[in-house]
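Subject: mismatched residue count in predicted assembly?

I count 275 residues in my input, but I want to confirm that the predicted structure covers every chain. Input:
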Amino acid sequence: MADKTTNPAPGKAVPNKKSQLREYTESIIWALVLALIIRTGVVQAFKIPSGSMENTLLVGDHLLVNKFVYGIKLPFIDTRILKVRDPQRGDIMVFEYPMNRSQDFIKRVVGVPGDEISGRNKEVYVNGVLYQNPHEVHKDWRVEPSGNSPRDTFGPVKVPENSYFMMGDNRDNSYDSRFWGFVKTSDIKGKAFIKYWSWDNESWSVRWDRLGRWIE
Amino acid sequence: MKEEYEPSPDFVDKVMARVYLLEARKVSLRERLLASRPIRYVLAGGGTILGILSAAPVY
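Triage response: the counts match. Full output below for your records.
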């Protein structure tokens, strides 16, 4: 005959059963920790509010940034671990704006350490050779004299160690290294790699053709 | 006791299972959903994804 004492009475508390509140609290804490770890070391989402990277990135684009390719930046200490590679010319990087570290900027790498960069009448030269990125655009036919602004004519400048010279693809409407100098390695947040959402505020519609596109 | 009246070995288990079923029906749908582990995992997972995709502006 079966042992009648093996079945606890209905409603009787099971000793190891966690309370519902505790289970929900644990779930919330796990969700927060997981989101924090992923945002710090794997991917982070950003959105574009300005046109400095047009036409590569449009206002309303949402993108993911690879946080580990240039090394995972450990919080509170200026150290990077598990670096896959250094930034290369042509990469689109997110970094802290050196003049106001509460703001993040996104621009394309034009100069890597050791390069000599100069600009003459809207043309950029790297180590004396004309550098043209297929994604760069000019939307202002006027050429600013070098005395007025470094927008169209600047340098030459030599990129120091652990620093990068960054420029927006929308060359005539980008506030970048031409104006405020170099970006230090410690200020780099990651490499932009995919657009996951794009909202056109003017036509109040989704730009479906841009979703899931790699950023090059 | 006559053998024909002897309860089967799993008699108590069967009865208790029906008792638990009856008791479970008394719990409201809301409480059952809140206590459901899959729903808790879906909520936590959804919260994690929303946390990851909450986008910061980059200029």
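The radius of gyration of chain A is 25 Å. Marking this ticket as 'not a bug'.
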